[in-house]
Design goal:
Elements: H1 2-13, E1 39-44, E2 47-50, E3 61-71, E4 75-82, E5 94-100, E6 114-121, E7 126-132, E8 140-150, E9 173-183, E10 192-193, E11 197-199, E12 203-205, E13 207-208, E14 217-223, E15 228-231, E16 240-243, E17 247-256, E18 261-271, H2 280-285, E19 288-290, E20 297-301, E21 309-314, E22 319-324, E23 332-336, E24 343-350, E25 355-362
Parallel strand pairs: 3-9, 11-18
Antiparallel strand pairs: 1-2, 1-4, 4-7, 5-6, 5-8, 8-9, 10-13, 12-16, 14-17, 15-16, 17-18, 19-20, 20-23, 21-22, 21-24, 24-25
């Protein structure tokens, strides 16, 4: 059950559902005995499981704990052997179903998820059918559910994955759950890296990490789109993105090939690095001095490379050290204060708009 619990947790954490998602276990559907008809052998790829009729008197759902790996685009054969109720309904036929939760939404009711459907099969026989895993299914782990249920010979309704609506006569049959690992190396998976903070009018370079085969093409968009330019264009694999306006932008990469499409989003915060309209307090909060306290070697992290001057003063306001910058010295400034005696000092950082002081403690 560990795999199914993990799937449920990932499903909930993904934001698709805030409730703890899990596959229906048909509470209240209790077999009247182990003589009730059920699956006696199930085969699919590497799975070959033989069992008794109904394996439980407390639940019609059996978690087998077995798993197999299927490849998208490949065709597989399923065989189901099923039994009869020799106590009350001798000779009554069964309806057979197999479902695979391709889209991993903890339901088997979506289009294409019924991979085997056969009604009125004589008990004590084996039914065989083939199905093809769609190329549009991405790689991942999901669940398969198989059932053999008593048919209308005994007045029963057709089987559904969760017996909904419930059979008025009870679910006379058995369900078996299996884990399926789907491999689809050709399915496009969009992904990219980009700086989460950039300056207005500067370019941010994309590092495209998308995968897929055959050939993947790309489409890039920004929300909001105003003032955003993709260079050389919005279909380049690794465009440079120039932001003309400050604000929060959502960048989306859509990766597409002949199999399917997939998208990935990243948030980019664009700041006016000339600090027009930005308060001195906001600018000050972005300047970091480390380590602090320091034994002499100090690094000063500044939000932009337009710093023009730096002055180190003591607690009396006397200048101990002054440095000038060209405005292109980067956003990490280094100071060697190993010759300065221990004490409390202030580092004043100057740009064209503001001067901000940070306290520094030197310990020798």
């Amino acid at each position: 059950m560990k795999k199914r619990v993990l799937l449920s947790l990932l499903y909930c954490l993904s934001g698709i559902s805030c409730a703890f998602a899990q596959y229906c276990l048909l509470p209240g559907r209790t077999p009247y005995s182990t003589l009730q008809p059920g699956i006696t052998n199930f085969q699919l790829n590497t799975i070959n499981r033989t069992s008794g009729n109904s394996e439980s008197t407390s639940s019609v759902v059996v978690n087998t704990g077995l798993s197999t790996t299927l490849t998208a685009g490949q065709t597989y054969t399923i065989s189901i052997s099923h039994s009869e109720d020799t106590q009350y309904f001798v000779g009554d036929r069964n309806n057979l179903r197999v479902w695979i939760d391709y889209n991993k939404n903890f339901s088997y009711t979506n289009s294409g998820e019924t991979v085997l459907s056969q009604d009125l099969e004589a008990p004590g026989t084996t039914y065989t059918a083939s199905f093809t895993v769609p190329l549009s299914i991405p790689s991942g782990t999901t669940s398969l559910r198989a059932t053999a249920k008593m048919s209308s010979d005994a007045g029963h309704t057709l089987p559904t994955p969760c017996d909904s609506p419930a059979d008025a006569l009870g679910y006379h049959g058995e369900m078996e759950d299996y884990t399926v690992v789907i491999e689809n190396p050709g399915f496009p998976l969009a992904g990219f890296d980009i700086s989460s903070t950039v300056c207005v009018a500067s370019s941010a370079t994309v590092n495209n990490t998308s995968t897929g085969a055959p050939i993947v093409t790309y489409s890039w968009v920004s929300n909001p789109s105003s003032g955003v330019t993709f260079n050389p264009n919005t279909t380049a694999a690794n465009p440079q993105i120039i932001f003309s306006n400050s604000g929060t932008h959502t960048i989306t990469c859509l990766a597409t090939n002949s199999i399917s499409s997939n998208s990935s989003n990243k948030i980019v915060n664009v700041s006016n690095c000339n600090f027009v309209g930005v308060s001195e307090h906001e600018w000050s909060d972005q300047i970091k001095v480390s380590p602090n306290p320091s034994s002499g070697l100090v690094k000063i992290q500044v939000p932009v490379s337009t710093i023009t001057g730096l002055v180190l003063t003591n607690y009396l306001g006397q200048a101990i050290l002054e440095k000038k910058f060209t405005g292109n010295d980067g956003t990490t400034l280094s100071l060697d204060l190993s010759e300065v005696k221990a004490g409390i000092y202030f580092i004043k950082v100057t740009t064209g708009a503001y001067s901000v002081s940070k306290r520094l403690i030197l310990e020798k």
